[in-house]
Known about the structure:
The structure holds two protein chains of two kinds.
Chain A: E1 6-17, E2 21-32, E3 36-40, H1 47-55, E4 62-67, E5 70-71, H2 77-82, E6 83-86, H3 98-108, H4 113-126, H5 142-154, E7 160-164, H6 172-187, E8 192-196, H7 200-206, E9 209-214, E10 217-222, H8 224-230, E11 236-241, E12 257-262, E13 268-272, H9 279-292, E14 297-304, H10 307-314, E15 331-334
Parallel strand pairs in A: 3-8, 3-9, 6-7, 7-8
Antiparallel strand pairs in A: 1-2, 1-4, 4-5, 9-10, 11-13, 11-14, 12-13, 14-15
Helix pairs in contact in A: 3-4, 4-5
Chain B: H1 2-10, H2 13-33, H3 41-70, H4 75-78, H5 84-117, H6 123-153, H7 157-189, H8 196-221
Helix pairs in contact in B: 1-5, 2-3, 2-5, 3-5, 3-6, 3-7, 5-6, 6-7, 6-8, 7-8
Amino acid sequence: MASTAEFIQFDHISKIYKGNFLALDEVSFSIKKGEIYGYVGPNGAGKTTTMKILVGLIRDYKGAIIVDGNPIDYGQTGVHRMLGYLPQDVGFQEWRTVEHALRTFGLLSGVDKHALDKRIDDVLALVTLEGVRKKKIIYLSGGMQQKLLLAQALLHDPELLVLDEPMTGLDPMTRFHLKSIFKKLAREEGKTIFFSSHILGDVEDVCDTLAMIDHGKIVKIGIPKDLREEYRVQDIIEITYAEGTAGLNDVESVEFVEKTSMTEDGRQLIYFKKGVQDIDTSIQKVLATLVEQGCKVRNFNLVKPSLEDVYLQLVSGDSSDSGMAKPPKRRKEKRA
Amino acid sequence: MFLDELRGYAKSKLMIILFIGLPVLAVLISLLTGNYQDFPETYLNTVLATSFAGALGSIMIGTSITTEQNKNVYDLYLIRPVSRTNIILAKYIAVYCCLVFAVFLAIFVGSIIDYARGTQINEAFAKLTHDAIVTVFFAVAITCSFGTLFGIVMKSVAASALLSLYVGNQTSAVLTLLIPIITNLMAQKRTLPFDPLSLTMVIGAAVAIAILIVALVVFNKKQF
């Protein structure tokens, strides 16, 4: 579990690139020890720049990064050993095998030569790449290369993992596997994970806290559950009827209902009026009305707002060019 | 890091071509030229090897650095406690060592051919061959330095290869001409108290080091 102590603090970080492009504008937030911290925003929002500043790839910035209460000093070897980084869009030298790459990175990270073989075994087992140990990296699939990137980040057993879009381009199975690894590392080994993703469903699945960034500014920080509640605009229930049953047809007769619509597969969506406080009572009244009207309800779900809904309200611009993955269906909470 | 890079470059296709190609070229030339006026194969191979190895070396280091930068390969190194200077120097020395080995391989084959033919190398050719062998080290160092610089500066692999090849080879070619130029100057003025070969070595080393320092400064200031 995450501790209450602040482990990493970004204190008013600003970064201006050539051409006077303001990539980060007074970005401030903090990450607790043992926490999985999600970082979301559209392409070009400043996610990668923030991460590159944290790992020391960009040194020319304003503001301060505080680690355990002290300003970060990249001149100290200990700082590099504390960090594990999975970069976005990175390649390996084509002549390297999986084992050779890990051996080189392990030695450069200061892993003891005698312990290195065992460590390589452990990280390859964790990311399920034991079978390709002797294989050249260029012959690995995209998913395997992504796992290898995670393996190199874990090799020196760092306290903090900085993962830049670790799940981009991966199939659902590999994403599921990586998410379970992240959870295991944080919950069982106490590692702190700071990761960005375009796939908000993945962020929602694993992170304890998340920050949303847009045009170089932090627009929201919070716990996913709280954010969903805070940005809940309208409650919707989705009803599946028994065959031959018509849906609710007298909307005006139900106090809290604003409108209804039918989905392509024949389910009815009932939209509650905005600002309804007692959703449970409202649902009861809708169900009572349905019974009165002779509707045979087979199943119903309360459609809860997802992180995508929150994101779309907070982040400006057209989502079609924001680089975000198409939002999955809203989360459903089964009630019957 | 040096041994790591050496292993990588030594196994690269281009270097394998060079290791096999230069000795094969030496044999082919000897077959084509025959034993022409007792012209020593060792000297011919030294000059040819310098030209080929220098050209391929500059292309190799230039394109590999540009490609690796474009693929963000260095991100994985720079987040670790290793200096940027070490990364580039390891590459430079690895390529240089591979090239020098390839050149010596070609010269060795040439001397075997000379020995088998029983070619008598006169004093003038012996001096020329000796000077050419010594100059090889510095010519290759210069082409590698230019390859490193253009590899760091350029974003296009093709541009990096062309510039490394052209500028590197032109500069190293000037170096090989320095000995006769200095010798002539000395003969005319009789005032230069330098040995032409030593002066060439000093100039070659200075140029190679200066270009390499510029490359290292640029790489150290780069934002990744």
